[in-house]
Amino acid sequence: MEDFDDRRRAESFGEVASDYDAHRPQYPAALIAAIMQAAEAAAETRTQTSSNAATDSGTGTGTVTGTDPDARVPRILDVGSGTGILASQLREAGAKILAVEPDAEMAAVARAKGLEVEVSSFENWDRRGRTFDLVSFGQSFHWVDPMIALPRIHTLLEPGGSLALAWNDIEAQGELQTRLAAVAARYHAEGTTASLGTAAEDRFASVEHPALTQLRATGFTAHESTFVEELRYSRDDWLSMVFTYSAQLTMDPVKRAIMREDMSSEIPAAGLDAANSALLILAER
Questions:
Q1: Which residue from 94, 116, 125, 256 lies 20 to 30 Å from 270 (Cα-Cα)?
Q2: Which run of H or of E encompasses 30?
Q3: Rounded average pLDDT over 207-224
């Protein structure tokens, strides 16, 4: 079963919206900078095209900066925005953000940050003729059907626009990683351990990421980059992060509580060192 077909997991986050926002990590600054570079390039293309069209028609002066100071601000659609973690970082970096999020409770947390959020699945979202310099998915692309989403994204992008797919991939460092992965394996024999915060499966290993195949099949060109940063967690913060993932949220509550106790017993009282090997796939039409 593909992730997007497993609606029980896909729709499990609303009940822990506050914990999700508090404990899921932000994206590395270098990853945000790479997304913004692509968005700003597309915004520049858009405004230059608009300027040239106005000049050619005799209705303008060939510049847009004098009449619309916000014309070159990148317009980003953030899909599956959740509590607005990626969207907030992109807004702080200078973009104008519209977020689309299917879960009302997650959307409420994002709105409390001042983000503009429309509650809808991406497949049913009403675009109302709007276009964007960049469409982003932060930890959410695997929850949409790519064969439906990718053709639609083609129609949403301005000329020169880009698609950005981002995932954080966090694992404990050293021998502790092996012990935590062993605990996870005991409780997830069915193979749903990819998103545990323990990297029980190395999703971003040497094999090609499945999104790259999907992108090529729908007319995109793409390249991937990895951004690594060192992190430090207390025991409670690590466990709180791990238990906001859908693999745990959809467990039997008693089994989930026992798994948390078993993981807690492996983690030193002083906490643990971790690394985030965040993946970014940037694609163009």
A1: 256
A2: helix 29-57
A3: 92
